């Protein structure tokens, strides 16, 4: 029986990227169907007292997350999935800046309306992005970032992984994640990270 998995991501987050690549690998070794959903670190961090450098970084993520919301609304989940891969490949392993130009190139890669990129800097997609963000926050609370994965009735932040496992190792990690999400009383496991994202 197919296991349906929902994954919420902000396109600019390298940890969400790692988790999403792991889940795509899981699809190859388990009977799993993934639905991707946009969320926004920009909206999540509104009104928070952040270090000025991190505030500038977060403010810069807006164009990408708002564009993802627009792609979801206009084209649907399957196209959003492809757009995320195109944009994430440019930003993360590709090292391109999060910018209107990079978003426009990713839209063009998928034969989508490149005008979405410039529009994402304004207010056109604001309510849309906030609606998607509310769905994500309602699942896990207001203090949790991206990625978020829902399996069955349980949604959790994470997992935060580096590098993303491949083949059967990816499937085994997913098997464990499913067991964790089956227990309603589970909330958190954590240790300090000793490496950054490994884009292999």
3D architecture notes:
The protein is α+β, with helices and mostly antiparallel strands and 200 residues long. The chain has one domain: Glutaredoxin (3-Layer(aba) Sandwich). The chain is 52% helix and 11% strand. Strands 2-1-3-4 form a four-stranded mixed β-sheet, with helices on both faces. A hairpin with a 2-residue loop joins strand 3 (148-151) and strand 4. Helix 1 crosses helix 9 and helix 5 (77-91) crosses helix 6. The mean pLDDT is 96. Pfam families: Rv2466c-like. This is Disulfide bond formation protein DsbA.
Number of individual domains? 1
Question: Architecture, CATH level 2?
Answer: 3-Layer(aba) Sandwich
Full CATH superfamily name: Glutaredoxin
Largest sheet: 4 strands, mixed
Give the oligomeric state. single chain
Enumerate the strands of the largest sheet in spatial order, edge to edge or round the barrel: 2-1-3-4
List keywords for this structure.
Thioredoxin-like_sf, alpha+beta, 200 residues, 52% helix, Rv2466c-like, Glutaredoxin
List the helices and strands and how they pair.
Elements: E1 3-9, H1 14-29, E2 32-38, H2 41-44, H3 52-60, H4 62-75, H5 77-91, H6 100-109, H7 115-119, H8 126-140, E3 148-151, E4 154-157, H9 167-181
Helix pairs in contact: 1-9, 4-5, 4-8, 5-6
């Amino acid at each position: 029986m197919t296991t349906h998995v929902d994954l919420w991501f902000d396109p600019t987050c390298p940890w969400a990227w790692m988790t999403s690549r792991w889940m795509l690998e899981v699809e190859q070794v388990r009977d799993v169907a993934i639905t991707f959903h946009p969320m926004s670190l920009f909206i999540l961090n509104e009104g928070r007292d952040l270090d000025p450098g991190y505030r500038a970084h977060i403010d810069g993520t807006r164009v990408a997350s708002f564009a993802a919301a627009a792609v979801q609304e206009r084209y649907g989940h399957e196209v959003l999935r492809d757009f995320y891969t195109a944009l994430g490949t440019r930003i993360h392993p590709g090292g391109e800046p999060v910018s209107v130009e990079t978003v426009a190139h990713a839209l063009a890669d998928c034969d989508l309306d490149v005008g979405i990129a410039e529009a994402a800097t304004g207010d056109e997609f604001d309510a849309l992005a906030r609606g998607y963000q509310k769905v994500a926050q309602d699942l896990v609370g207001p203090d949790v970032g991206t990625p978020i994965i829902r399996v069955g009735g349980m949604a959790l932040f994470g997992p935060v992984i580096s590098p993303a496992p491949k083949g059967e190792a990816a499937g085994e990690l997913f098997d464990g994640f499913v067991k964790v999400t089956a227990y309603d009383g589970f909330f958190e496991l954590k240790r300090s990270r000793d490496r950054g994202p490994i884009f292999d």
